[in-house]
Write a structure and sequence with these properties.
CATH architecture: Distorted Sandwich
GO molecular function, one term: carbohydrate binding
Largest sheet: 9 strands, antiparallel
Number of strands: 22
Number of helices: 2
Strand order of the largest sheet: 7-8-9-10-22-19-18-13-16
Radius of gyration: 18 Å
Catalytic activity: alpha-D-glucose 6-phosphate = beta-D-glucose 6-phosphate
Oligomer: single chain
Enzyme class: isomerase
CATH class: Mainly Beta
Keywords: Isomerase
Helix content: under 10%
Distance between the termini: 20 Å
Number of domains: 1
Structural class: mainly beta
Pfam families: Aldose_epim
CATH topology: Beta-galactosidase, Chain A, domain 5
């Protein structure tokens, strides 16, 4: 995605503007260190390109930017649960309108803060009072943190994921390593070599992954390190051809140039008492 081409609605600072993309508003960062963009719809990172390097984040060419459905690609925010633990699948955060809370900047980069709090619509789905914040730190690296706070009077259980789609040159020449010795696939625990390679659909939760996993993107001659915290698993996903062809918002060959490596609390195992917070984060480092 060429974020520099988006129409500008408002100039917030030397490095930060608000832009329009079809039916959604996007906060755009153009800084000497990197360019980036995050949609207010879904609190959804759309792009991160370190200066002098290739785009790191994969976006579907058929992604829906009307604000009527979740966006395919980028970094969807799956919260307050991951997967089909409840309805809607992956929670409601990725289809909610987030508010721009603040932006800060210096010569090292830009920090964007977006927030979401409970309202009548969210309470109809999930009866809890909460305050969620996404911190997007753009510089030589991209760090995204999801801070969940219980603002109610009773405990709440949460899960979720920063569902990062990485832009790669060729899935056949890609591997993800430092994944540990076990994964869950279709509900079964299986032994792992610690490295995922791709010859068909992969949908796995690695439960013993290192803090930093490594994507070897051989076709682009680069390695992407993904440092996670606050998670209890790393989800690795590629839909392969048959699933891609069944998705209206993904091109048929889109699976060839993307891989997901997600910082996740996959099982709603975080319990927050009133006043408590939890931070789930992922940092993207390209070399």
């Amino acid at each position: 995605m060429d974020v520099k081409q988006l129409p500008t609605l408002a100039v917030l600072s030397d490095y930060v503007t608000v832009c329009e993309l079809d039916g959604i508003k996007v906060v755009r960062v153009i800084h000497p260190k990197a360019t980036a963009a995050v949609s207010l719809f879904g609190g959804h990172v759309l792009s991160f390109t370190p200066t002098g390097k290739k785009e790191t984040i994969w976006m579907s060419e058929k992604a829906d930017f009307t604000g009527n459905k979740a966006i395919r690609g980028g970094i969807p925010v799956c919260w307050p649960w991951f997967g089909k633990a409840a309805e809607p699948s992956h929670g409601f955060a990725r289809t909610s309108e987030w508010a721009l809370n603040e932006h800060r900047e210096n010569e090292e980069g830009v920090i964007i803060s977006l927030t979401l709090s409970d309202n009548a619509e969210t309470r109809a789905i999930w009866p809890h009072a909460f305050h969620a914040e996404i911190l997007m730190e753009v510089g030589d690296t991209l760090k995204v943190s999801l801070v969940s706070a219980n603002t109610g009077e009773r405990a709440m259980q949460i899960g979720g994921a920063l569902h990062t789609y990485f832009n790669i040159g060729d899935i056949h020449q890609t591997s993800v390593s430092e994944l540990g010795n076990e994964y869950i696939e279709a509900g079964e625990r299986k032994p792992s070599s610690g490295t995922a390679k791709f010859e068909g659909e992969v949908d796995r939760i690695y439960t013993q992954a290192a803090k930093a996993v490594v994507i070897d993107d051989a076709a682009n001659q680069r390695r992407i390190t993904v440092e996670n915290s606050g998670n209890n698993g790393v989800v690795v996903w590629n839909p392969w051809q048959a699933l891609a062809e069944g998705m209206a918002d993904m091109e048929n060959d889109g699976f060839l140039t993307m891989v997901c490596a997600e910082s996740a609390v996959y099982d709603r195992s975080v319990t927050l008492q009133p006043g408590e917070k939890h931070t789930l984060s992922t940092e993207v480092i390209c070399k």
